[in-house]
Amino acid sequence: MLTEFAAVKDRADVADLRLANFAKRMTGRCVYLAIGKTDERVGTEVCKELHRALVSAGSLVEFNLTDDKGHTMG
């Protein structure tokens, strides 16, 4: 999602760095995630995907999906 990676986003080595790919390594850890419902910079949907992967892997996750607009946290 980050514009800085737009030119290389389709490369396999970059795709391998997706945080959801590391969810199993975080099994048993406590994780806090927070993002606004309309964050297009980091990507709300990408954060939701990470949340699902972490929960599936067995991590305890506190996930706050806020009403903040864009890439901000109030």
Strand-helix topology:
Blueprint: H1 12-15, E1 30-36, H2 44-57, E2 60-66
In words, what does this structure look like?
The chain has 74 residues and is an alpha+beta fold. It has two helices and two strands. The protein has a two-stranded parallel ribbon with strand order 1-2. Helix 2 links the parallel strand 1 and strand 2.
The gist of it:
This protein has 74 residues and is of the alpha+beta class. 24% of the residues lie in helices and 19% in strands.
What key attributes describe this structure?
74 residues, alpha+beta, 19% strand, flat
Principal-axes shape call: flat
How many strand elements?
Answer: 2
Radius of gyration: 13 Å
Structural class: alpha+beta
- Proportion of residues in extended strands: 15-25%
User: What is the count of DSSP helices, taking H or I runs of 4+ residues?
Assistant: 2
Provide the residue-averaged pLDDT: 92
User: Sheet bearing the most strands, described?
Assistant: 2 strands, parallel
Ends apart, CA distance between termini? 21 Å
Report the helical percentage: 10-25%
Low-pLDDT regions:
none
- Biggest sheet, spatial arrangement of strands: 1-2
Instruction: Provide the succession of SSEs.
Output: HEHE
